[in-house]
Design brief:
The chain has a five-stranded antiparallel β-sheet with strand order 3-2-1-4-5, with helices on one face. The chain is 24% helix and 30% strand. The chain is globular. The longest helix is centred in the middle third of the chain and has 11 residues. It is built from three helices and five strands; from the N terminus they run βββαββαα. The two termini are 19 Å apart. A hairpin with a 5-residue loop joins β1 and β2.
Length: 98
Amino acid sequence: MKIITGNDLRTGDVIWWTGQGWSRLVNDAVAVGEDADAIIAQENDKQVVTDTHVIDAETTSEGVRPAHIKERIRALGPTVRMDLSLKPADPAAAKWVI
């Protein structure tokens, strides 16, 4: 499946297109199919998101998982300290990336 990601212009947070707006949680991302370019153009015009792009992902038993390791790292959050990530209490979070 294809999903859209970008960065929030106000906070710099990695965000994911939900079909109705943006979320910091990759599990909220929805498949965009053929509509990706139109969604990106419309959202870029609103000037609330930057660096929007379409990525490959899959749905697993744990939710949405980006196909590429770079995007999995972005989805997890800061890598300098796991307690600052989006899954600080999950001891298996780092394994999710690889």
